[in-house]
Amino acid sequence: MNATLQLGGKVRALRRREGWSQIQLAQKLEISASYLNLIEHDQRPLTASLLVKVAQTFNVDLQSFADESQSRLINDLQEVFGDVLFEEHPLMSSDLRELAGNAPVSQAIVSLYRAYRSATESTQALASKIFDGRDFLGVNPAHLPSEEVSDVIQKNMNYFGELEAAAEDLVARAKLDRNDLYRSMVDYLHDEHGIDVVLDASRKAVRRFDPERRRLALSDAIPARSRIFQLAHQIGLLAAQPVLDSIILRSHLTTPESVTLCRVALANSFAAAILMPYAELLRAAEEMRYDVELLGQRFGVSFEQVCHRLTTLRRPGASGVPFHFVRVDIAGNISKRFSGTGIHFARFSGSCPRWDVHAAFLTPGRVRTQLSKMPDGTAYFCVARTVRKNYGGYGSPETLMAVGIGCPVREAKKLVYSDGYDLENLDAAVPIGTTCRLCERMDCEQRAFPSLQHGLTIDQNVRGMSFYAPAVTEPPAKASENVAVRSRGRKRATS
In what order do the strands lie in the sheet with 207-210? Predict the structure, then answer.
């Protein structure tokens, strides 16, 4: 490992996760607080010897210090410059790595591209409305807030130690009855916050809190487990407000919409921590070999909630299998994503259609598994299933989405879903990629766009596996072979 890695952000995140001050950590590392401050701001390198001491202090594997942030940044830059907009200005991988070395400039480029894509999509939506005159709710707003919040979750690896501690403290302090969480949380809101909980038959909102009337209305159209989750979410917004504010403050979000969205995401994490306590979930997951449906029955939560919660089991010294998480709709739009395994998701374009999360729509309600391999040889074991959401009765629209999780193939044996797979035979793995523009595989029958590395080559006389996957042109036959073929043809004709 390079002896001068710039890992200040990683050290700072670990320190804040433990709730330590710079002085406290400096004492543990036997260095000055001022030197630690320089390390955390990448003004001094983290030497190899000090890196080992940091890993021992936080009880984490040295591998966790691999510079995933730069890898993600390079991937984002590849996707940005993979746009047809830059076809006349091709950049080599070495150029992108050098550019990613200047993180502020690279992040500014990615942000600028986000704004460009948002403006383009809004213009197209508006043009579509003007063209066909159909009524619609409005132009799609900028995607920047959701991207900022995704970055916050990613930088913290979806684990917030102070949020977990706050949830555990509240469960103990409020004496919540795990056999009757709904009643326990209703009593807690009434006794501690003076809030009355009522069921709402109007079905115009899943949850509606009126702070002046101290009234929380929950829709009676949602399942009982969803009402419990919404109760826990509201408790998080009220009881864990200082913790939420602290995380948001250190995340340096740039818009009010980002702040609100981040608060909602963190309150959801708090709710999940109440419904599925960390230690209890980890123990049950290991006993059940990460059977998502059995875990959902054990804790009274949905398939998606279990999948999302499994990605948060990152506590130092007590971590579970590292998972990535993705949720897509039937059109292929990614509405949630998290990479806890190093896998890259497309930010600005469609994902690979070979992922099992897309195939899940072919068999609704059935768990699908897949051993998959990226172009660089990295292999993952993935699990996916569709989830249905319906907030009404007969005649109400139903939403169908697919949720997928995956782990590095080396961890797959811990999952019940891997039984029967030869995890050593990666030749049998399904070849997948991030997105068509970035994928190097030219023999894919599902390729929808030309590869950035190979460009578009068309031979009118040859049709490949797909329009953008050219076939290998066979060499022309030798003159002597042609003569021989014609001679044989004449003999057959005269016989």
Answer: 196-200, 215-219, 207-210
